[in-house]
From TrEMBL:
Domain FAD/NAD(P)-binding: 9-316
Cysteine disulfide links: 46-51
Binding residue positions for FAD: 55, 118, 307
Family per similarity comment: Belongs to the class-I pyridine nucleotide-disulfide oxidoreductase family.
Cofactor: FAD
Keyword Nucleus tagged: no
Protein name as it appears in the record: Pyridine nucleotide-disulfide oxidoreductase
Amino acid sequence: MTESETIAYDVVVLGAGPVGENVADRTRAAGLTTAVVESELIGGECSYWACMPSKALLRPVIARADARRLPGLRQAVQGPLDADAVFARRNWFTGDWTDDGQADWLAGIGADLYRGHGRLAGPRTVTVGDRTLTARHAVVVSTGTRAVLPPLPGLAEVRPWTSREATSSQTVPGRLVVVGGGVVATEMATAYQALGSRVTVLVRGKGLLNRMEPFAGELVAEALTEAGADVRTGTSVESVTRADGTVTVVTGAGDRIEADEILFATGRAPRTDDIGLDTIGLEPGSWLTVDDSLRVTGTDWLYATGDVNHRALLTHQGKYQARIAGAAIAARAAGTLLDGADPWSAHAATADHETVPQVVFADPEAAAVGLSLAEAEQAGYRVRAVDVDMSSVSGAGLYGEGYKGRARMVVDLEEEILRGVTFVGAGVGELIHSATIAVAGRVPVSRLWHAVPSYPTLSEVWLRLLEAFRDN
């Protein structure tokens, strides 16, 4: 093979994160020749700078918090966390930022890997360095997103953290300012406060986790405050400077905060600015609009999966989309998929609309699926929210003293199905899939009575929610 050679494939995938990997897995399983192009590490953001390292940092934090609520155990865990050991375990989860294992996996499914920056060069054509790859059936963009920094003068000289630096740091800053109130901000504030930083969280809006029910952010903020963090809402950042290793932040209220590091967790932008979108008439740097088969609007060969289509910036949803896209590409290649296919088939990403689940691994955990009460009302549904104090559930008592949490289900009063469910409390992340099945499956409330929760587990919250709906 010469460097200038043009190589033809059935499918070319731009991006080898978990989403691109899953696209390749499905297209290869269907017998389609597949090339995967990656400019960084195979496994992408999730494996090295997001899901895996962040949860590895948080697991000891949550385990210690749970232990401290249990008489007979709390006395054994009163000391500080061993930050070096936590970081070492985190490093193991990332493979020390090497991707040999992931490369072997791609080779094992029969996909060809091209390392380098891939760019579209017209319809069904991708260049990687001096090589040109052509796609008989589809090009799939799975390039993900990057962190967005605010347009503050001199910010580059401050060398601020983004999610990448926060999840890969090998040291614990003595003082850390976290700007933002979303998932990254909340989880990293939780982790570094527990690891020994003095954390200040600056939130422009009214509270944390504003895409969930308001009580979720309130309970997490309360717990962060009790742990020693300073959480300030309604606070903007006017300037940031660094001198002699110290970061100075000036807020909109004129307050000055000094820190050793500052993390900006203030949004994401699609990594589509330099992938050749202009060669096919699309705007560089734009989000890519897709139909439910993940095909980009106005094309019959270009697909976009994961963060770049802006439907749900979550790894599990991206992998779900990848499975849908792979099945749709294979079916179209075989001539067996017609537009207007069954919306609940393997070729339609129906769950991206109103049934997206998410877990925030804070202390307490927050988990939600579907619509919040406000979102359901805004969508025009006639709904009622049913709330239960999680501490009333028998299983909560097993988590120790002072359990704090809350559960809500949003009931569609006309169809008597659930439009959304939210849980906050220790251990609730493991409850969310049952809620996802109820919401995505449109399970009638009357039938949920026959899904009997095991005693004594946190799942008994379902019985308490149903009783509250019946009795009020």
